[in-house]
Write a structure and sequence with these properties.
The complex is a heterodimer of chains A (310) and B (281).
Chain A (H helix, E strand, L loop, with lengths): L5 E5 L4 H10 L4 E6 L11 E4 L6 H8 L2 E6 L10 H20 L4 E5 L23 H4 L4 H16 L4 E7 L1 E3 L6 H7 L4 E3 L5 E6 H11 L6 E5 L4 E3 H7 L5 E3 L1 H13 L22 H6 L8 H6 L7
Parallel strand pairs in A: 1-2, 1-4, 2-3, 4-5, 5-6, 6-10, 7-9, 8-12
Antiparallel strand pairs in A: 9-11
Chain B lengths: L2 H8 L3 H7 L18 H18 L3 E3 L9 E5 L7 H12 L7 E5 L9 H7 L3 E2 L2 H9 L3 E4 L3 H5 L15 H9 L3 E7 L9 E2 L1 H7 L5 E2 L19 E4 L13 H25 L6
Parallel strand pairs in B: 1-9, 2-5, 2-6, 3-4, 3-5
Antiparallel strand pairs in B: 6-9, 7-8
Helix pairs in contact in B: 3-4
Chain lengths: 310, 281
């Protein structure tokens, strides 16, 4: 990868996607693909509004000399439907097929450390080759596990493509809106009585920096991407000065399930496990191989969910 | 600081506080280590632990100087139905050794499912006993307590007292792999704190517990029957044993090394039984 090489980025309309494009376009030529309309992209970025599964994508690969693909375009919809599943799995497959067909040098995939799943008998500090049990208790993310596996097998089948899979911990920041950051933004968040797991957070800009490092020549493989350390959930909420509501697990589960069914909350019930059990990963590989170090400290990272106003 | 916190602070003696500052475990920016251990909370637990250690079990500790600095596996016999033996070994290293060491012990995998207990265990530095957790702690130069007899040891009936059950091989493989010295530990006195006459296996199975001991006091006296008898504890720390290997040897090779540890614990147990003249004295 040299300066002004062409990088294709999926999911550019998303909050994290826009941040990636805004950071990368200073160094590379960016083609942003998203089926949603995109606003606020830099002028020199080409936007192609298309579903990954459509032919338009083939034309892009054929006509442009693409050197790297950054795949962020997964749907993380709490109310997952069949089309989301197909979009994630088939879209990724299509992207991989084109990557090998047009001999793209690099494929960077943004997966997530959630796919290891929070379990009471987890070792702390899961490594990259630990089993992906996330979908066992949360079937809603089974497409994300499937995508992770598809990319892993691509890594072994296509040794001439440098495939990098990043599995960051909970991404938070002023821009992103995902389950963990939305939870931390609640004024009165629920906690489960008698549980206080260790939590790992990473700042959105640190994730983007990890992606930039992943584009460096020679980097390939699966990497957990860990932010500035671990803290108990209670301390994280304390720093945000939240007034918590302690709900016994036996009540929290059925209650959240009903709230979710009647669309009164966007938190799927199995997410409770994240505020109950540990899902802590080991980021040593990314630190040693990619030379990744987060720039935001623990307290800064936690406070970043409040947005830009403070 | 809330009223409850301030009240609790009053009960923590300065020596506990100053010892807690000298344990040499690295903490994160919020005073918690990556595993969830929080010394500011653990000192509240250390205070009643000292009372148990000095007043209740009136522990006599021998050979504490055998516990080296840096990574170490403490391997002990296990007895007494409830794990007071583990607590007292921890208390000995915290209150008797200079500088103090804070022992991590490996807890059962189902404990993190329990509300409150899971958090308490994490804050006082106890960790789910997976090999990965153990390896990481040893590489951080910490002291880990293991009971290779596991549930077999702690729940054995009174007629089998001071007879070592079969040892698991995991601890030896970890010691070899991480190049960790083993300090054998013998606890005398815990066997008599809750003499189990019978282990009601069918009830245990029904309740999902590893054992259901019937003692002269439990379950007749209800929860009060869980209180251990105030027997006198004697804890012996043997000389560190260093073994050569990689940890992936055949079972019979490992077994020979384990037998060395076992015989060291056994001889300390016999010495302890000789040295005492009465269960309570």
């Amino acid at each position: 990868m040299i300066e002004r090489d062409t990088v294709l980025t999926t999911g550019a309309a998303g909050r994290l996607g826009r941040l990636v494009v805004q950071t990368l376009h200073r160094k590379y030529r960016i083609i942003a693909v998203d089926r949603r309309p995109v606003r606020g992209l830099p002028k020199d970025v080409t936007h192609i509004r298309s579903d990954l599964r459509r032919r338009a994508l083939d034309d892009v690969f054929r006509s442009q000399n693409i050197k790297a693909v950054i795949h962020l375009g997964l749907v993380h919809n709490p109310r997952a439907n069949d089309d989301d599943y197909r979009f994630n799995v088939l879209g990724t497959q299509k992207l991989l097929d084109l990557t090998s067909k047009y001999e793209v040098d690099k494929f960077v995939m943004l997966s997530s450390a959630n796919i290891y799943g929070p379990h009471p008998d987890n070792s702390l500090f899961l490594k990259e080759d630990d089993p992906l049990l996330g979908a066992q208790s949360f079937p809603g993310i089974r497409d994300l596990v499937a995508v992770d596996r598809i990319v892993q097998s691509f890594f072994y089948r296509q040794p001439n493509v440098e495939t990098v899979m990043l599995r960051p911990v909970h991404i938070v920041g002023p821009r992103v809106k995902n389950a963990p950051s939305n939870y931390l933004r609640l004024e009165r968040p629920w906690v489960i009585s008698g549980f206080d797991p260790m939590i790992q957070l990473i700042h959105e800009e640190d994730v983007v920096r990890a992606m930039l490092l992943a584009l460096n020549p020679g980097i390939k493989g699966v990497f957990n991407v860990v932010g500035p350390g671990e803290a108990p959930l209670s301390k994280v909420l304390k720093i945000l000065e939240r007034k918590t509501i302690s709900v016994p697990g036996l009540i929290a589960w059925p209650m959240l399930e009903r709230l979710f069914r009647f669309k009164m909350t966007s938190f799927p019930t199995p997410e409770i496990r994240h505020i109950q059990f540990n899902c802590i990963v080991d980021g040593a590989l990314a630190r040693n191989v990619m030379k990744f170090e987060p720039r935001y400290g623990l307290i800064e990272t936690i406070r970043s969910v409040r947005g830009f106003e403070d | 600081m809330g009223i409850r916190r301030r009240l609790a602070e009053k009960f923590v003696p300065d020596r506990v506080r100053s010892r807690m500052n000298r344990i040499g475990i690295e903490l994160g920016p919020m005073g918690v280590d990556p595993f969830g251990f929080e010394p500011t909370v653990a000192k509240y637990a250390a205070t009643p632990m000292e009372q148990l250690y000095r007043r209740y079990f009136r522990v006599i500790t021998d050979g504490i100087e055998n516990v080296p600095e840096g990574r170490v596996l403490l391997v002990s016999n296990h007895s007494g139905q409830l794990p007071f033996d583990g607590m007292m070994i921890g208390a000995a290293l915290f209150f008797e050794r200079d500088p103090p060491r804070y022992v991590r012990s490996m807890i059962e995998k189902w404990i993190p499912r329990l509300p409150y207990i899971s958090v308490f265990m994490a804050r006082i530095g106890q960790i789910v006993g997976t090999p990965d957790n153990c390896r990481r702690l040893l590489n951080n130069e910490e002291a880990i307590l293991v009971f290779p007899e596991g549930a077999r040891g702690i729940s054995k009936t009174f007629d089998k007292r001071y007879k070592l059950e079969k040892f698991g091989t995991g601890f030896m493989r970890l010691a070899l792999e991480t190049n960790t010295p083993i300090v054998p530990v013998a606890v005398v006195g815990a066997e008599e704190q809750a003499p189990a006459l019978y282990d009601a296996k069918s009830i245990a199975k029904f309740l999902g517990m590893p054992a259901f001991p019937i003692t002269p006091f439990f379950p007749i006296l209800g929860p009060a029957g869980l209180l251990p008898l105030p027997t006198r504890y004697r804890i012996y720390f043997g000389e560190p044993l260093k073994f050569e290997g990689h940890g992936d040897e055949d079972d019979d090779v490992i077994q020979k090394q384990i037998d060395q540890v076992k015989s060291s614990i056994n001889s300390m147990l016999h010495r302890g039984l000789r040295e005492r003249d009465g269960v309570f004295r």
